[in-house]
Specification:
Chain lengths: 251, 278
């Protein structure tokens, strides 16, 4: 396997009209790692992920995913990655099995039927497979979105708020499945979230964004030590309210 | 450039997978099968329109010598107009289903190429058109003694040209909706009516003012409707009209595809693919 990072972002900028949504960020994500992209509303997390997926063209800068320049060479690698986001949905009238069949075929999955059965068992969807997707609860829909994201056993998984609007029990269940998938497949996961506990539990490294820029980038233990805080939530609040900069200035 | 030892070339962007086209067709087939109102809607308007115009033609034939000789031109025009209009609508509605379902992001981030997406939409427009129009042509035969299939090979030439126009317009409108969101949805329903007066569906091109006639001759369906009248009134098939229409259709299709790709690029630049609402 190549030692090059799964994702390389260099001086990435996205400007809408005159407003910078992402403002010159650079980072790399090693293969097999799970990285959290943390930030408040409008921090630029979703735009960054969309540029990594090739859905948005950067104003300037460079994104390389699994060795391919995005968005120009996206078709060379889209089959090896997948994503989950609350900003997209699965067609409501189709059953879970029908939706997964369509996406399995789009991603070139061999023996789609068997893959769906396996995913159904892993994600506790077996009894629901023939139910229309529109008749599922929020938790069930999230599991279906996760099944779609895992249908092609991606090397790179991009997750945008994967547990948004879920109750704590279901959210915990989803996190456990993600951890297991990452461990079993040595997959790379980039996770954008507001949920500090989620990021703290899952991620080995955290990138904190604010107003389109990277404010900090480190492992959770080092961030906690540097900010003198007990939880990532406290670190996040320090960054969001500018106390991190004040502390650095004082030091 | 290489990724995992595999050469990444520009060719990957143009690789065409019949399996992905089949996946999209399957998706639309599942949708049609799951919703009887969608199926009824396909047949409802063509039937209402054919019956209305069929009775009008019946009345006019009894009272006007010209129309008595030109038997079937009105009802033939209605059926061919339906091929043009329903063909474009079949294309556009399948595309709109993705916007309504908020599924377009899933598709745009999947390995599905624009050419495969368009191919699936083209096939589905023929499927939807067949469901809607074939029963209506049979009703025209039973109620008004008008046999569209009696046009023979000419019907094939008419059909091919009308479908090509409907796809070209459908492709361009889909690009507009991708770029501008569902706010541009109304164009999908109404744009074809712009063709209605100019393509001379119910009257010869000579009816138009002289200055407007060159505009009419720039539109491929004009040749089809003129060809239909020549066949039904003078009983002569004019292949040169069909070849002219085909040439214009190739240009129109190229323009529609170019427009779609340009609008898709613009949508990627403006982040419109993330916000597919109004």
């Amino acid at each position: 396997m190549s030692a090059s990072p799964a994702i390389e972002v260099e001086r990435l900028v996205k400007i809408y009209k005159s407003v910078p949504a992402v403002d010159g960020i650079s980072f790399a994500v090693d293969r097999g790692s799970i990285i959290g992209l943390l930030g408040g509303n409008g921090a630029g997390k979703t735009t960054t992920i969309a540029m990594i997926m090739g859905l948005i063209t950067p104003t300037s800068g460079r994104v390389t995913v699994l060795g391919a320049r995005m968005p120009r060479q996206r078709y060379a690698v889209l089959q090896r990655m997948n994503f989950e986001s609350p900003f997209v949905e699965m067609p409501m009238r189709l059953s879970i099995r029908q939706n997964l069949t369509v996406f399995g075929m789009l991603y070139g999955v061999p023996d789609v039927g068997r893959r769906i059965e396996k995913l159904g068992a892993e994600l506790d969807l077996t009894d629901l497979l023939d139910r229309p997707t529109g008749r599922l609860s929020a938790g069930q829909k999230t599991r279906v979105s996760l099944a779609k994201a895992l249908i092609n056993m991606p090397e790179l998984l991009l997750l945008d708020e994967p547990t948004a609007s879920l109750d704590p029990d279901t959210a915990d269940w989803v996190r456990a499945r993600l951890e297991r998938y990452r461990r079993e497949r040595n997959a790379t996961v980039l996770l954008a979230s507001h949920n500090m506990a989620e990021v703290e539990r899952l991620c080995e490294r955290v990138i904190i964004m604010k107003r389109g820029r990277i404010e900090d980038d480190d492992t959770p233990p080092r961030l906690l030590a540097r900010y003198g805080r007990r939880t990532l939530e406290e670190v996040f609040l320090d960054v969001a309210r500018g106390r991190g900069e004040l502390r650095e200035a004082a030091q | 450039m290489t990724a995992r030892g595999v050469t990444i070339s520009a060719a990957s962007a143009f690789a065409f997978s019949p399996r992905r086209v089949a996946a999209m067709m399957l998706r639309y087939w599942y949708l049609l099968r799951s919703s009887w109102p969608r199926l009824i809607e396909l047949v409802y308007w063509p039937t209402v329109q054919m019956i209305t115009w069929g009775f009008l033609q019946y009345y006019v034939m009894q009272n006007a010598g010209f129309f008595a000789r030109a038997g079937g031109t009105l009802i033939g025009a209605v059926l061919l107009w339906d091929i043009l209009f329903r063909g474009q609508l079949g294309f556009s509605v399948s595309f709109l289903e993705e916007m309504w379902a908020r599924n377009i992001g899933n598709l745009m981030m999947s390995p599905l190429r624009p050419a495969e997406f368009i191919a699936a939409l083209m096939v589905m427009s023929v499927v939807r058109l067949s469901i809607g129009v074939i029963p209506v042509t049979l009703l025209a035969l039973v109620f008004f003694d008008f046999n569209l299939y009696g046009l023979g090979l000419a019907l094939v030439a008419f059909f091919v040209n009308l479908m090509l126009t409907s796809w070209a317009v459908g492709i361009f409108v889909s690009g507009l909706v991708l770029r501008n969101g569902l706010g541009a949805e109304n164009l999908a329903w109404s744009i074809m009516f712009l063709f209605m007066p100019l393509t001379c569906i119910y009257y010869p091109v000579t009816t138009l003012p002289i200055w407007l006639q060159p505009v009419a001759w720039m539109l491929p369906p004009t040749y089809v409707f003129e060809g239909m009248r020549a066949l039904l009134i003078a009983h002569s098939f004019r292949p040169e009209l069909m070849l002219d229409a085909l040439g214009l259709n190739i240009l129109l299709l190229a323009g529609g595809t170019f427009g779609f790709l340009a609008l898709l690029r613009s949508a990627r630049r403006h982040g419109s693919l993330m916000q597919t609402g109004e």
